[in-house]
Amino acid sequence: MTRPFEYPWMVLLLYIWKGVLTDKCAGSLINNRYVLTAAHCVRTTGDFKLSKVRLGEHDKTKEIDCIVCEDGNEYCADRPIDIDIESTVVHSEYNRPIRFRHDIALLRMAQEVEFSDSISPLCLPVREDVRNTKVAKYTVTGWGITEQQVVSDILLQADLKHMPVPECQQKMKENGLRIDLSEEYQMCAGGDGLVDSCKGDSGGPLGSYTDLTGGQFVQYGIVSAGVVSCGIVCLPGIYTRVNAYMNWIVENMEP
């Protein structure tokens, strides 16, 4: 479980579903106007229509999130804010010709956001040395389904280990899953036991703190796909490799 202020770049994606505003995916704040997420969170099926993003959220059941200090004083965040989405950009080759490939999208918010202790962007692997560094362990965050098969109201985190794509591909095959993975565009990570990202975590960031950026958190992956029975079957999750899309991200962001 996480604490308020710990992951201020986390974004909830809000959808209109049967006239009600509900959340179904996540994303990461990358500057004061843009959110990075998965393409499948934008190209939705059924009655879900992407409408807004929510910034500064931690516990969805509380209006204001607070930390209670040892001396009894409270350190409280501002109320979360909902912002309309002005436009979206989905990778032109998403799901073509291979399922889950190029699962990446950008959301442009209708207004610039002011940063605070509870709302601030994360780092992307812009520099070549950051992109090329070998990361053994990652952290993934989200409000997705837990091992008890219920959606979490509180932002959760999981520590995951890097898994080479060939090994990941083999594990998928052994479990009867036909997924054609790409070393260039995708990556895999899994936790001990049944720890993994899950439904509801889609579009959220997989990252790691690195000394190359002064100890800041860098996003290396976007939650893309996994088994339906996550938390039940021990299989790695599949992530869009952010490194491969840095040029695409920059080219598709307006000033």
UniProtKB/TrEMBL annotation:
Keyword Disulfide bond: yes
GO CC annotations on file: extracellular region
One Pfam family matching this protein: Trypsin
PROSITE patterns in alphabetical order: TRYPSIN_DOM (PS50240), TRYPSIN_HIS (PS00134)
The UniProt record lists the keyword Signal: yes
Keywords assigned by UniProt, alphabetized: Disulfide bond, Glycoprotein, Immunity, Innate immunity, Secreted, Signal
Gene Ontology BP annotations: innate immune response; proteolysis
Transmembrane segments: none
CDD domains reported in the protein's UniProt record: Tryp_SPc (cd00190)
Subcellular location, record wording: Secreted
Family: Belongs to the peptidase S1 family. CLIP subfamily.
Protein name: Uncharacterized protein
Lineage, highest ranks first: Eukaryota, Metazoa, Ecdysozoa, Arthropoda, Hexapoda
